[in-house]
Each structure stands twice: as C-alpha cells, then as structure tokens.
C-alpha cells in the first residue's frame, strides 16, 4: 500500500512542478516521511490531503526543492551579461527599461548579484533596468525578500570583498543587502511549468534559468523552454547552467559562444 501511495504522490508532484520521482521512490520517501509522521497518515491518505489543502503543496515543494546557491555564481556569465549584453540592449531599447528575469531565484543571491553588477557598470539610472525574480518555493522567496544572510553562510564564498563592503551592512550576526540593491528586485511566486501563469509574466530581454533543467526529464525541459521562449523578446538572451544544453532541441534558440562562456539568443520571428 505504501508503494502505491508513493507512486501516486510521484505522479501528483510531476504534474504540478515537473520533478520526476517515478524511478526514485526511495528518495521521495526520504524527503517526505517525517512530514507524514507529523500528520499521522499514510501515503495514500497524504495524496488526498495534498489535493484538498493548497497550503500543503507549498510545504511539499519546500521538502523537495534544492536551494543551493551563492552570490557571484558562474562569474563569466554574469560579466558577459552586465558588461557586454546590457550596454548593447541599452542602445537598442532606448524607449523602455531592460527587463531581466531570474527564474528559480531561490534565496535571492542571483538577482541581487545582478543588481550589484548593474550598479557597478555605472551605465544605468534608477528604473532603466528591472529585475524580476521568481521561484516555486514560497519559503525561500520570503528569505530572499528580506535580503539577510547569516555571517557563516556559504552564500558568500565567491563574492569579491569590495562588493561585500559596498552593498552589505552588518546586522544581527549576519549581512543585510542594502536597500539600493533590494529595491531593484521584484520577487514573485511562479511555477515554471504553469503555462497560463508564465504567459501572464510579460516580455523580458534576458533570462537566467540556471541549474534548473537538470531536475527535469526531456519532455518537461522542452515544455519549460517553450514557456521561456514565449516570454523572451526577439533577440533576447537565455543563460542556462554549464551542464545544461538545448542546442539540439530545435526550440528557437541559437547558441552563442563567447571567450569564457556560452548562452542562447532567441532567433528573430
């Protein structure tokens, strides 16, 4: 009965957020059994419970999602974006702000890093670049919005010291991102496989969706990339993790190789 319940739960999870546990039921059990013990119910009963209680799906997502991230992650991509692509977009898009989307932003290190590097260019006035950060995990979004990180956090293991001194203040045993950077980022809850919600998101010029696709099967990967493609402006750019590739999928992107990294450009309609 437990295996039947786990099978059913894996199907619910896959349909909701695209995470595949069909052939990893022992891992799924390891991530969820304490929650079921707290509730005192079986896996079959839990499947019904999740469907009836919307807030429980949020708890389940918290148990399943991996939120490993840090400031200044994959430096070469960040430098390429802020020193090469943003100045080009500034010249091309003089009549509106440039919009950058940090998809699966976790606890906020990625969008805040982008904000700091934009400030460092000195090319943009307030409001000329908009950063939108989304995640499916509401709990990490709450932390991201606060912008406070513990002093011993691994989040700081790569960030240059000058950025730490310039954009953080020391508060309560940790570091608080300054309002000049916090104000640049809008945080929103979003499920990347929800076509309707993603479709309402609006056009953006650059998307960072790094180290997300590695958790999806090929079908779900194609589904998510189609959603991102729809929201990306013509000639816009997509950054993925170094272990992720969509080159052979024929989804309307052209790979761009620079000296130290690669990314994708949306082909013109």
Automatic annotation (TrEMBL):
SMART domains: MeTrc
Alphabetized InterPro entries for the sequence: Bact_Chemotaxis_MeTrfase, CheR_C, CheR_MeTrfase, SAM-dependent_MTases_sf
GO function term, MF aspect, one: S-adenosylmethionine-dependent methyltransferase activity
Gene3D superfamilies: Vaccinia Virus protein VP39
Source superkingdom: Bacteria
Domain spans labelled CheR-type methyltransferase: 1-269
Protein's recorded name: CheR-type methyltransferase domain-containing protein
Organism: Pseudoneobacillus rhizosphaerae
């Amino acid at each position: 009965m437990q295996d039947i319940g786990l099978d059913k739960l894996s199907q619910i999870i896959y349909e909701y957020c695209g995470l595949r546990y069909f052939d990893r039921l022992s891992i799924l059990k390891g991530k969820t059994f304490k929650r079921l013990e707290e509730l005192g119910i079986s896996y079959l009963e839990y499947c019904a419970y999740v469907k009836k209680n919307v807030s429980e799906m949020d708890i389940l997502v918290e148990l399943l999602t991996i939120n490993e991230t840090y400031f200044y992650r994959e430096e070469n991509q960040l430098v390429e974006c802020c020193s090469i692509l943003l100045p080009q977009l500034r010249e091309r898009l003089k009549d509106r702000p440039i919009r950058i989307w940090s998809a699966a932003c976790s606890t906020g290190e990625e969008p805040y890093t982008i904000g700091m590097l934009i400030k460092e260019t000195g090319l943009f006035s307030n409001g000329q670049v908009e950063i939108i950060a989304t995640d499916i995990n509401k709990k990490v979004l709450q932390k991201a919005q606060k912008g406070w990180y513990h002093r011993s956090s691994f989040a700081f293991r790569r960030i240059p010291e000058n950025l730490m001194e310039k954009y953080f203040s020391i508060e309560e045993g940790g570091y608080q991102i300054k309002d000049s950077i916090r104000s640049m980022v809008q945080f929103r809850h979003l499920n990347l496989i929800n076509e309707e919600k993603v479709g309402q998101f609006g056009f953006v010029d650059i998307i960072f969706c790094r180290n997300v696709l590695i958790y999806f099967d090929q079908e779900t990967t194609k589904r998510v990339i189609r959603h991102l493609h729809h929201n990306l402006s013509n000639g816009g750019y997509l950054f993925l993790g170094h272990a992720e590739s969509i080159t052979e999928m024929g989804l309307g992107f052209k790979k761009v190789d620079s000296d130290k990294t690669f990314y994708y450009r949306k082909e013109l309609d």
